[in-house]
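re: ur msg from earlier - yeah i can do the flavin-adenine dinucleotide complex, just paste it... oh wait u already did. ok heres what im feeding in:
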Amino acid sequence: MDIAIIGGGIGGLTLALQLHARKMPVTIRIYEAVEEMKPLGVGINLFPHAMQQLVQLGLLEAVRAIAVEVKEFAYFTHHGQFILSEPSGLHAGYDIPHFSIHRGDLHMVLYNALRERLGPEAVALDHRCTGVTQNGDRVTAHFTDRNGRNRAAAEADIVIACDGIHSNIRKQFYPDEGPPVFHGINLWRGVTRARPFLTGASVTRIGGLHTTSKLLFYAIRNNIDDEGNQLINWTAEVISDDNHTVDWNKEGRLQDFYPIYKDWSFDWLDAAWMLRNADIILSLPMTDRDPVDRWTFGRTTLLGDAAHPMYPRGGNGGAQAILDGALLADLLARGGDVDAALREYESIRIPATAKVVLENRTAPPDLIIDTVERLSGGERFEQLSDIISEDELRQISANYQKVAGWDKDSVARAWKG
Ligand SMILES: Cc1cc2nc3c(=O)[nH]c(=O)nc-3n(C[C@H](O)[C@H](O)[C@H](O)COP(=O)(O)OP(=O)(O)OC[C@H]3O[C@@H](n4cnc5c(N)ncnc54)[C@H](O)[C@@H]3O)c2cc1C
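and the outut:
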């Protein structure tokens, strides 16, 4: 059987490794639009549900060597007042760690593993897929090169579209859908070299709805120099109507968001300094799409951001792509009816990911800081317990973990190691 994977991002590369790990008698080829794989992006989180899949692929040590193992989630108001700390990963009693990592580092771990295990010929670069045609039980994928010139088409038994948020294949099946939908929130993302703060491994959210803005900080590389500095990823969220096309690499300007945060300097973290001293700043409108009820069309199916683009909140863009791949690989590895496997894949993963898409809009982990800022009217509180109990706050994150599938029960159920 020939399987063509369109797109060599986090979802496409992991899927290829997952198919290969199941020792199926298949030929796997990835067709990727870019001419050269480069370590792009900034921070991304690998919670235990996603990490579990990478552990099963034998990539734990490769990730551990370059990522930061997270100890806790920490929540503060925009005054810098402490709200809540929750342990994470091994520190919360999971068998599997939670890592924060540079997306480019993760991409390179996957790419190197793929070249080692499947051989360099498994990836065809400079192949931008323009669409697919179905011929009986075979599918033909059509390509152009970087100059827009046609390339030879590729035939396969299954085509899996892992071509990201601007998927051409999704566009073919949903021609009237338009661009990803903007809901009025802009994001600036960046990385800054700085001393470790809090535990040195704290995913930290500050602010909330009252100020129409919030910050997220987490370390993604340890010991980047002789002084023990870390590379710290940050995200600044601002509610505003200014919208532009989603481009993961678009440069952002400090002056467009810094005025809101210029006084956010606390004794435990000088957040304003972190923003001012960034190595890079990227800007991104927060977009997603309403869930659809079909991913599989003949022998072509969608995976990752092509299937369920979601707000980049709660660390689930990458994780859900990895989980899609795990299930799809399991179903195909069973052998038997390929069409039935593709239908079963979408029947399980569409409802699971639709919940995450919707939860990321309304009740992501940020709801903890939003709720406290709303209840306090944005003022300093004397005693947090006067306005909300710790249990209620913990319930918010427990709910999110359940929807996203990384509560302890779900992770334990999925374990096949
Ligand atoms: C350059 C880049 C930087 C990113 N940075 C971050 C980040 O810092 N933090 C974060 O949380 N998420 C980031 N993301 C998104 C994140 O990787 C995804 O949300 C998530 O991992 C889901 O993975 P995916 O494989 O579905 O999509 P992606 O990882 O986006 O991969 C899609 C892949 O498909 C390729 N492609 C696109 N169109 C075609 C086509 N027509 N034919 C062939 N190949 C095609 C792309 O070049 C890309 O390699 C980034 C994505 C990209 C592409």
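cool cool. The mean pLDDT is 94. ping me if u need the other ligands too
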